[in-house]
Amino acid sequence: MVDGRLQRWLDTVLPAHCRSCGGGLDAGLLCAPCTAELPWNVPACDRCARPLPAAGTCSACLQRAPHFDAAWTAFVLDTPIQRYVHALKYHADFAQAQVLGTLMAQRLAQRPAPLPQLLLPVPLHPLRLMRRGYNQALELARVLGAARALPVDAHALARVRATADQIGQSAAARRRNMRGAFAVRAPLDGLHIALVDDVMTTGATFEALAQACRAAGAARIEAWAVARTP
Questions:
Q1: By the 8 A CB rule, do 177 and 166 touch?
Q2: Which of 66, 153, 141, 62 has its CA nearest to residue 104?
Q3: What does the pLDDT look like over 9-37, one tens digit per residue?
Q4: Cβ pair 72, 222 in contact under 8 A
Q5: Which one, of 80, 96, 88, 87, lies nearest residue 37 by Cα?
């Protein structure tokens, strides 16, 4: 008899049924109808990934350009993606990292522009990492990096200041909260990098990290997340 943990791992690597509807599966992790019905974030702003009615740059970014050069999220934060993200983030359901990272990689395979040279997961403060036991951004970056043959550096970025929970805060308050929260501990001279996180809300975390990475010499900075809040 296969033990429960091994069975869950086998179901992740070699799933026999669609992870969304439970129906038959030819390849991948979700069946074709469920994949098509996911809340894909298309079209979206090319600078901040805000959902738009047509491709282009949103008015907010035209008025105040973010510190990163581009942003991309595979999805809008809606059902069932929100459920998958929460299961990974709050319940250590690492199978969801495989699902979400694989779906992101499949979408990136259609990207005509060059991919970044390095993936940098958004770091947790050491105290939060100790309480949670893992960094969901790193779990996602590992799957994404393996699927697209992109290196991942889990140690280049550090969160050096514990920040208050940002849920419910305005964009301005989030930016103040993130000020001086990060440090870069590896040379990024001339590199094209992508910062990786689970959810992008106002972009304040990415903004603070982008400023630190720019100061460390990064040439092009992209902000990547599973989903963008609508």
A1: yes
A2: 141
A3: 445 555 567 877 877 776 667 888 888 99
A4: yes
A5: 80
* Gap between the Cα atoms of 118 and 4, Å rounded: 35
Report strand pairing: 220-228 vs 192-200: parallel
Q: Determine contact, residues 72/206, Cβ cutoff 8 Å.
A: no
Q: What is the largest CA-CA distance in the chain?
A: 61
From the list 164, 183, 51, 50, the residue with the least C-alpha distance to 120 is 183
First-residue to last-residue Cα distance in the chain: 45
Residue showing tokens 């799957």? 143
How far, in Å, are 28, 33, 125, 171, 209 from residue 118 at the CA level? 25, 33, 21, 28, 15
Chain centroid, CA 132 distance in Å: 18
Distance CA 45, CA 57 (A): 5
Residue 195, class by beta-carbon neighbours within 10 Å (0-12 exposed, 13-18 middle, 19+ buried)?
buried
Please give the structure tokens belonging to residue 156: 């280049």
Per-residue model confidence as pLDDT tens digits over 128-153: 999 999 999 999 999 999 999 999 99
For 59-92, the DSSP string reads HHHHHS--SSSEEEEEEES-TTHHHHHHHHHHH-
Per-residue pLDDT of 217-229, as tens digits, reads: 999 999 999 999 9
